Every structure is written in C-alpha cells, then in structure tokens.
C-alpha cells in the first residue's frame, strides 16, 4: 500500500512539474521497462530534455542528467529504481532528441520511408501482432535495405558480438520503434 501511495504521489507531482516539459520519447525506453521508471526519469530530466531541444549539446546534457539521477538514487528518491535503468532511459532520450534537433529533415525522410517499407508490419501490429516480433521483423527489413543478402538465420547467430549486421543509421531503429509503439495493441 505504501508503494502504491508513493507511486500515485510521484505521478501527481510529476504531472504538475512536467506539464510543459519535454517528455521522454517512448522509443528511447528499453522494451519491458516499468512505466514508473520512465516517469521518475522524466521527472528528473525533463528540463534537460527541454534544453536539448533548444540546442544544448549531448555531453553537457548527459553530464547534467547523470548527476541528477545519481543524486536522486543516493537520496533514495527513485522508488527503488537504480542508476542503471534510469540512466539508460535518460541517455537514450538525450541522444535521440539531440539527433532530432540536429537532423529534423532526416528524421522526417526516414519516417516517410519506413511508413512505406514497414506498412505490412505496422498493419500486423495494429491487428495485435506481438510488439517484439514486429520490432524484430522491422529491424530485419531495415537491415535488408542496406544489404539485400542479410539473413538473420545466418547473420544473427551465436554471441551478439559476432553477428554480421549491416551498418544502418540508428535513426531508422528509433523511428521504426516509435511507429510500432504508436499502433501496437500491447503498448
């Protein structure tokens, strides 16, 4: 009961604080992460994300976010969530938002390309396909645009450090995940 009260209090106070602040983009959240961890991270770094959207560099924003998260974890203000997950959410968010700030036209182009390339997967996700399966299929299609011979049964076996993945702009993964999150029945 105490945990539920803390979460409700945290959510209400964060809603008041972050009403006009930049939210954590859900494509930056690791799959399977609790909503409470996202809200706590957002509360800690939303002002920093605003600064990134106005041009603050990655290094400065990253350092400020890490400092805020470290202090909150040490002070016991993160409802038991550790530095590892909160920092991962924040660093992913800062990196993607900084990239969007620097290349907005590229993100628009990628979104237009992926809406066509992934149309069948997006439709399947709308119809209830498992999110992780849809995301894996989207990644395969993206890899195949860079290397038509890419075959996950051959190129994605064994320890991940030995996978033979084609080089692809990371923006494709972020946009694909956002598109699937937006239509998935599970998310």
Offer a quick outline of the entry:
The chain has helices at 2-17, 35-53, 58-74, 83-102, 104-117, 119-126, 131-146, 152-155, 170-183.
Word description of this protein:
The chain has 187 residues and is mainly alpha-helical. The chain contains 9 helices and no strands. α5 packs across α9 (170-183), α6 (119-126) runs antiparallel to α7 (131-146) and α7 (131-146) runs antiparallel to α9. The chain is globular, with a radius of gyration of 18 Å. The two termini are 26 Å apart.
What's the average pLDDT?
88
Give the topology string: H per helix, E per strand. Answer: HHHHHHHHH
* Sheet of most strands: none
Radius of gyration: 18 Å
Number of strand elements: 0
Specify the structural class: mainly alpha
Global shape: globular
Quaternary structure state of the chains depicted: single chain
Q: What is the helical fraction, as a range of percent?
A: 55-70%
Distance between the termini: 26 Å
Low-pLDDT stretches are 1-18
Protein traits:
mainly alpha, 68% helix, disordered N terminus, 0% strand, single chain, 187 residues
Topology:
Elements: H1 2-17, H2 35-53, H3 58-74, H4 83-102, H5 104-117, H6 119-126, H7 131-146, H8 152-155, H9 170-183
Helix pairs in contact: 1-2, 2-3, 2-4, 3-4, 4-5, 5-9, 6-7, 7-9
């Amino acid at each position: 009961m105490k945990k539920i009260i803390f979460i409700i209090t945290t959510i209400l106070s964060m809603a008041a604080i972050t009403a006009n602040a930049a939210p954590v983009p859900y494509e930056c959240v690791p799959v399977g992460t609790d909503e409470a961890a996202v809200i706590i991270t957002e509360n800690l770094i939303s002002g920093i994300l605003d600064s990134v959207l106005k041009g603050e560099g990655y290094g400065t924003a990253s350092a400020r976010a890490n400092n805020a998260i470290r202090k909150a974890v040490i002070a016991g203000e993160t409802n038991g969530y550790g530095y590892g997950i909160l920092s991962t959410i924040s660093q992913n968010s800062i990196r993607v938002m900084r990239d969007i700030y620097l290349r907005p036209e590229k993100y628009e182009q990628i979104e237009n390309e992926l809406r066509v390339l992934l149309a069948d997967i997006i439709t399947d996700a709308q119809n209830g396909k498992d999110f992780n399966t849809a995301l894996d299929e989207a990644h395969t299609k993206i890899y195949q645009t860079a290397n038509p011979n890419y075959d996950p049964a051959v190129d994605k076996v064994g320890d991940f450090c030995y996978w033979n993945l084609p080089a692809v702009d990371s923006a494709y993964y972020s946009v694909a995940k956002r598109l699937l999150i937006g239509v998935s029945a599970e998310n």
